[in-house]
Amino acid sequence: MQIKTLLPLVAILLLSACGETNTASSETPAAPAAAPTEAPAKAMTGEWTSLFNGKDLSGWHTYGKEGVGAAWKIDDGAIHLDVANKDGWQAEGGGDIVTDQSYANYELELEWKIGKDGNSGIIYNIVETDDYDYPWLTGPEMQVLDNDGHPDGKIKTHRAGDLYDFISVAEENVKPVGEWNQVKLVVTDGKVEHWLNGKKQVEYVNKGPEWEAMIDNSKFKDFDAFGQSTSGKISLQDHGDAVWYRNIRIRELK
Questions:
Q1: 79 with 244: CB under 8 angstroms?
Q2: Which of 89, 193, 216, 243 could share a disulfide with 186, CB 3.0–4.6 Å?
Q3: 217 DSSP 8-state letter
Q4: Distances (CA, A) of 132 to 127, 183, 223
């Protein structure tokens, strides 16, 4: 590219960089969101595998336990967290559910809808051992939220589609309460992409000095195993609020 062509492009990029600074939590600044590209991380060459058959919760279990609690139900072809009864901040008979298998270098697709004022999340790269009580002690989260009704909606990096407590979405396009949102999550040994309703919203490196600095500036800084794995199990979070998930499938990236 010639210099006279490059200079206007540089000016445009400088002007577009003068936007609002993200906030990682109510106390710490977030790392700025990278401008998402429209190309996927790697070529998708694997076959799709369903992680939910629409009938039961085969292939899933409650984190740290065997089987799935009664609060997780099948509702019209979707996984539904029934929160009629609470046990602290989670549903009675609930708890975070995780895949039986661990995954590396993959593309995950699913749909979710949230209840009024609800909060949930898709947590990934989870290391499930007796040393950690919850998936979020080891795995990052793609936030699932009623942005307008839940208090976390007032925190820039805690809104739907965000890399929770780190990076806000490039453009808010979440659908209203009760409507289905489409997710694509691309996870590799080196990079992660969050897609929401057809738009790439978040892109970040998931290892190395840049990632470690992001963790140090987040609420997870004191959790020694957080974000240290680039592969692992996938979780649907019980945050004590009604949520539905369906059409969950995965394929390897090669």
A1: yes
A2: 193
A3: T
A4: 8, 27, 10
Q: CATH classification of 23-252, choosing from 2.60.120.560, 1.10.150.20, 3.90.1150.10, 3.40.1390.20?
A: 2.60.120.560
Residue at 15: amino acid letter:
L
pLDDT tens for residues 103-127?
Answer: 999 999 999 999 999 999 999 999 9
CB 42 within 8 A of CB 253: yes
Q: Check: pTM over 0.85? Answer yes or no.
A: no
* Distance between CA atoms of residues 100 and 61, nearest Å: 7
Q: Which is it for the CA torsion 213, 133, 188, 112, positive or negative? A: negative
Closest CA to 194 of 112, 115, 109, 134: 109
Alpha helices, H only, the chain:
3-16, 209-216
Tens of pLDDT, residues 49-90: 999 999 999 999 999 999 999 999 999 999 999 999 988 899
Residue 43 near residue 253, CB atoms below 8 Å: yes
Task: Quote the Cα angle for 88-221-171, to 5°.
Answer: 80
Domain range summary for the chain, segments of one domain joined by +: 23-252
Q: Which amino acid is at 110?
A: L
Tell me the two tokens of residue 238: 């019980």
Residues 6+ apart with CB under 8 A from 71: 81, 82, 83, 85, 91, 92, 93, 94, 238
| CA 63 centroid distance within chain | 17
Q: Which of 64, 52, 51 is nearest to 96 (CA)?
A: 64
Torsions phi, psi of 193, nearest 5? -125, 135
Q: How far apart are CA 143 and CA 161, in angstroms?
A: 5
